[in-house]
Amino acid sequence: MIIAVDGPAASGKGTIARALAAYFGLPHLDTGLLYRAVGLTLKRAGGDPASEADAAAATGFADGVLADPELRTEATGALASRVSAHPAVRAALMARQRAFAHRPGGAVLDGRDIGTVIAPEADVKLYVTASPRVRAERRAVEMAGRGLIADVDAMEAEIRARDARDMGRDHAPLAQADDADLLDTSELSIDAAIQRAIALVEARVKRHHTE
Ligand SMILES: Nc1ncnc2c1ncn2[C@@H]1O[C@H](COP(=O)(O)OP(=O)(O)O)[C@@H](O)[C@H]1O
Ligand SMILES: Nc1ccn([C@@H]2O[C@H](COP(=O)(O)OP(=O)(O)O)[C@@H](O)[C@H]2O)c(=O)n1
C-alpha cells in the first residue's frame, strides 16, 4: 500500500506520516528533507538559490547531510522552498522518491507533490492542513523546545510566504489531489489527528476492496 501525505509547512503531515508508517508497518520517507539537503548543500557551496545550475549541482549531496540538525531550521526550509521551484532539482530527486514509493509492501511518503506527481497511483492520499496562525504557533513551540526564541507573528509571515511560493510555482505546485482526503488539524490534538488519519486510510482501503 502506498500512502501519500501532502500539505503545507507545519500542518502536521510529518507527524501523521510517521504515525501511519508505524501503525501500518510501512517505511516512511520525509521528502522535504531531500529538498532541505539541496538547499543546505547549495548554501555551503556559496551557490545562488535563484540559479537553476547551482541548485541542480547541489542535488548530488552526501547522504550524511540528511542527519544535519541545520536541516530543521526555518531558514533551511525557506532555502528548500526556493531551490525546489527549479524543474532540474525536482527531476533529479524524482527517481529516488519513486523507488521508495514502490518498495515491495508499500511505503508512506510526505511532501508537497506526492499524490500529484511522485505517486499519483497511491492507494491513499491525505492532504493535511491547518490555519497559518496555528501552524506558526506549532513551529514556535517546536523551536522553544530546541531552546530557540520564535516570534509567532514573524513565523506566520514566513509560513505564509512559503505557502505562496510552494502553491504558486509552475512545476509541481502544492495542491490537494482530486482524489485526496482533506484533514484539517487546526482544532485537533496530535492524537486526534493521528486517529482521524488512520480512520481515513482504513475507509479508503475498505472502499478499494468493495469497488
Ligand atoms: N495536531 C497537532 N496539534 C499540535 N501540535 C501538532 C499537531 N500536529 C503536529 N504538531 C506539532 O507541530 C510541529 C510541526 O509538525 P510536523 O508534523 O513536523 O509538520 P510538517 O511535517 O507538516 O512540517 C511539530 O512540533 C509537531 O509536534
Ligand atoms: N515533496 C516535496 C517536499 C518538499 N518540497 C519543498 O521543500 C520545502 C521544505 O519542505 P518540508 O516538508 O521539509 O517543510 P515543512 O513542511 O516540514 O516545513 C517546502 O517548502 C517545499 O518547497 C517540495 O517542493 N516537494
Largest sheet: 5 strands, parallel
* Secondary-structure arrangement, i.e. CATH architecture: 3-Layer(aba) Sandwich
Q: What share of residues is helical?
A: 40-55%
CATH H level, superfamily name: P-loop containing nucleotide triphosphate hydrolases
The average pLDDT is 96
- Beta-strand content: 5-15%
The small-molecule ligands in this entry are: adenosine-5'-diphosphate, cytidine-5'-diphosphate
The beta-strand count equals 5
Characterization of the model:
The chain has helices at residues 13-24, 32-44, 52-57, 74-83, 87-101, 114-118, 132-145, 152-168, 190-210, and strands at 2-6, 28-30, 107-111, 124-129, 181-184. It has a single domain (2-201), classed as P-loop containing nucleotide triphosphate hydrolases (Rossmann fold). By secondary structure, it is an alpha/beta fold. The chain is globular. It contains nine helices and five strands; from the N terminus they run βαβααααβαβααβα. A five-stranded parallel sheet has the order 2-3-1-4-5, with helices on both faces. It binds adenosine-5'-diphosphate and cytidine-5'-diphosphate. Adenosine-5'-diphosphate is lined by residues 7, 9-15, 138, 142, 185, 188-190, 193.
